[in-house]
Amino acid sequence: MRNQLIRFALVSKALLFTVAVHGALIALLLYSFNWVDEIERGGAAPIQAVVVSERDILEQIEKDKAAEAQRRREEQQAAANLEELKRRQEQAQEKLAELEREAQQRQQREREQAQLAAEQERKEAERRKKLEAEKERQAEAERQKELEAEKERQAEEKRKAEEERRKELEAEKKRQAEEAQRKKIEEEKRLKAERERREKLEAEKKRKDEEARRRLAEQQLQNRLEDEQRTKTRNEAANALGALKDRIATAVEERWRRPPNNKSGLNAVIRVRVAPDGRVTFAKVIEPSGDSLFDESAVIAVQKASPLPFPDNPKYYEFIKEFNFKFNPDDR
Fold first, then answer.
1. What is the pLDDT, as a whole number, of residue 264?
2. Helix (H) or strand (E) holding 284
């Protein structure tokens, strides 16, 4: 296919060159024919006869002679031009024939070159095919050698692997025996250490149990003493607060304002919280009297009586910082 394309390109090139040369020659011939035709048609102008004097006739004769001479010169020049044109046409035809011969020779050379290129291409293809076949043969031989070498290598590796496995098995047996002996010794040591550890733990547990019983007894004694002291302090605080009950009631009643239309004999229990100095921080009715105006007036009176009379011993505050105050102003 490639050789056919080369031959087609060479023939097309020669054909185009031949057509271009023929076209140039035809254009030159057409131009020459037009030029000669114009020369042949351009003869002397016709002479018109008129009635004139002798002088005019003489002048006219001279003019006619000059015109005749001019016409002859022009005819001679036209003949010369025609001869020159014929010579040029002959030269052009010879040149055209020479160009055609050269084009035919070029085409022949190109055909020969194309055939030579095709032959070289065929020979090159055969040579490449032989080279490829030789390479394939050599590659196959190399593959066979590599396969043999690989088989030998694998056999050697297998033998070495089996030898290594045998050595490893022997070493593993030896290691396992040593490991078993080591574990036996370690187990004996561990059991001995475990017995000693249990004995120590039991002794330590016994000591801790005795220590715990002792501390528990001491703590129980301490708690009992603290409870007794706390109960004593609570009682003392309650007694101290009870001693101030009348003073607290008086302070609250002095600041109480009886609500309008209030019934007598009402009472309410108020939960009171105080600061260490007796200031009232919270007051709320926990047992109402049934009269909301009375209950509200009682809470207001407690808040206005702040600070209330309160024991000044700070150890009493924890027990009496909140207390219930019964407000019954009509019973006093």
1. 85
2. strand 280-287
